[in-house]
Amino acid sequence: LPYKNGAQVDEAESIVETIKDGWNVPNRIPFASEIMVEDGAPVTQKIMAKEYGNVKYFLLKGDYLERHDEIKKGYKVEEKGLFAVVVDTEGREAIRHYIARGSIVEADDDAPVETQTLLARPESDESTVIAEWDPYSNPIISESSGTVQFEDIIPGVTASEQFDELTGKTRLMINEYISPEYKPTIVLATDDGNIIRYAVEAKTAVYAQNGAEVKVADVLAKTPKALQKSRDITGGLPRVSELFEARRPKEVALIAEVDGIVSFGKPLRGKQRIIISSENGIIKEYFVDKNLVSLVNPGEFVHAGERLSTGQMSSHEILRILGVKALYNYLVSEVQQVYRRQGVNIADKHVEVIFTQMVRQIKIVRSGDTKFIEGDLISKVKFKIENAKILRLGGEPAIAEPFLVGITRASVSADSIISAASFQDTTKVLTEAAVSAKVDDLTDMKENVIIGRTIPVGTGIYKDQEIQFAEDQE
Fold first, then answer.
1. Which of 280, 286, 279 is nearest to 261 (CA)?
2. What is the dihedral of CA 315, 318, 323, 329, to 10 degrees?
3. Which of 33, 91, 165, 363 is most open to solvent, judged by the fewest CB atoms within 10 Å of its CB?
4. Residue 174 domain-assigned?
5. Residue 391: inside a domain, yes or no?
6. DSSP state of 20
7. Separation between Cα atoms, residue 309 and residue 47, nearest integer Å
8. Enclosing domain of residue 54
9. 415 located within any domain
10. What share of the chain is helix, strand, coil (3-state, %, to 5)?
11. Same domain, residue pair 102 and 167
12. H/E element holding 389?
């Protein structure tokens, strides 16, 4: 909320700032990656125009852009802050592209360009490797310099020796089946006198030697990641049904609710405790179930919406933490993955229409002076109409939050009696409508199609505000 309690506001001023809808979880380099570029080194790529028009070059000077009309094709960019601005026929900015240092300009200043016209390219065709990591395993990294000691890592009992053809050396591999009385652990005695313990799982490859000296960030062991099973269209269709019906997965992945730094706390009843501490003092605790595996490490910085453990992400959790737009992106991506594996191309708009119906209802959090009850699921249209009426009378409006329902429930719980009764539970819907003396206003298309009336589209569609068109004065 941008205002404090009791602050004065003007008419048409935004009272609530929506942050979740515009939030995208940023991609980041995985834990224990090897950085291959220096800090501040320029990384270039091909820049293609995304609009029609003429390209003009500007250089960022402080808080403003300075025109640079002397740039020609073949110019090598040596300075920071160069922008290629594509302007339309009236000189208005259509789109702006940033050109990194080390790029070669491929279009003259004020030259006409079309979409996909090459504006700049890297100096060489060689790709730049930013970081390298092992995508098939999770490494265990030493947090400090010290001496390694093995605990319950016994060759022939809890571990077996394997020969590494690349290095020509043997290393220990933790057995898949271990007696319950053994708990293989790598103990690190740091130089400053502290003891750090790293529990190792089955099939973990141990790279450190017992009694050896290690330094900070040395790899002590690697645990293989679980392999993803191949899916066919028959195996994927239940996944589509699960998404459309908004079912909660059996094994739900933990999702970070705030930005912050990860630390591990004391386990509770065999469950690993993950603590996220944000910059503003908010602390969130999560407990990883025994059949799930943690995907984060102590000291990592995570963003809200990042996965903390294995398992299936819940659509309801994504909506609660990241908002409606992030939910749209996730659901469309998950549905499309199933069909694209089989070469079936479906436009996103068809899937988005279905998901729009799934989030058309909202849940009342605070009823205020309205007729709603806390916990009610109502349509956004009813919510806006009731709140507008209460505000005109000087009362306290209701507060609601987005809510996700499956397509079956969304159809049955439609505002229209005819629309709800035409799908499932016809007797139940009509009985409730008769007992409650409901009135069908015939505002949507479905009920009007059923009874043969003109459908409310175009100028007849529902709108929040009346639109007035100014008459042509010419």
1. 279
2. -70
3. 165
4. yes
5. yes
6. G
7. 37
8. 37-122
9. yes
10. 20, 30, 50
11. no
12. helix 380-392
Q: Tell which of 157, 191, 224 closes a domain.
A: 224
CA 186 to chain centre: 35
Same domain membership, residue 219 and residue 180: yes
- Alpha-carbon span 40 to 371, nearest angstrom: 59
Domain count across the chain: 3
Q: State the first-to-last Cα distance of the chain, in angstroms, to the nearest integer.
A: 46
pTM: 0.60
Do 403 and 447 reside in the same domain of the chain? yes
One pLDDT digit (tens) per residue for the chain, 474 residues: 445 566 666 555 544 443 333 334 445 666 667 676 666 666 667 788 888 888 999 988 877 788 888 888 888 888 888 888 998 887 788 888 888 888 889 889 988 888 888 888 887 766 667 677 777 777 888 888 999 999 888 888 888 888 777 667 788 888 888 887 888 888 888 888 888 888 888 888 888 888 889 888 888 888 877 554 444 545 578 888 888 888 888 888 899 998 889 888 887 887 888 999 988 888 999 998 877 878 887 888 888 888 888 888 899 999 998 888 889 889 998 888 888 878 888 888 898 888 988 888 889 999 888 888 998 888 888 899 899 999 999 889 999 998 998 888 887 777 788 888 887 788 888 898 899 888 888 878 888 888 888 887 776 665 666 656 666 554
**Which of the listed residues 167, 201, 224 is the one where a domain comes to its end?**
224
> How many CA atoms does the CB half-sphere of 261 hold within 13 Å?
6
388 lies in some domain: yes
The CATH number of residue 211's host domain is 2.40.50.100
What is the identity of the amino acid at 219? V
Rounded CA separation 33/248 (Å)? 33
CATH number for the domain spanning 363: value is: 1.10.150.390
Would you give the DSSP letter of residue 436? H
- The DSSP result for 294-309, as a single string, is B---TT-EE-TT-B-B
Helix, strand counts (H, E) of the chain: 9, 26
**241 CB contacts (<8 Å, ≥6 apart)?**
none
Token pair for 310: 């294995």
Question: Please, are residues 362 and 370 in contact by the beta-carbon 8 Å criterion?
Answer: no
Whole-angstrom Cα distance, residue 330 to residue 322? Answer: 11
How many CA atoms does the CB half-sphere of 362 hold within 13 Å?
A: 18
CATH number of residue 111's parent domain: 2.40.50
Nearest to 256 by CA among 206, 161, 202, 320: 320
Contact, 77 vs 15, CB < 8 A? no
Nearest to 381 by CA among 456, 468, 321: 456
Separation CA 455–CA 468 (nearest Å) = 22
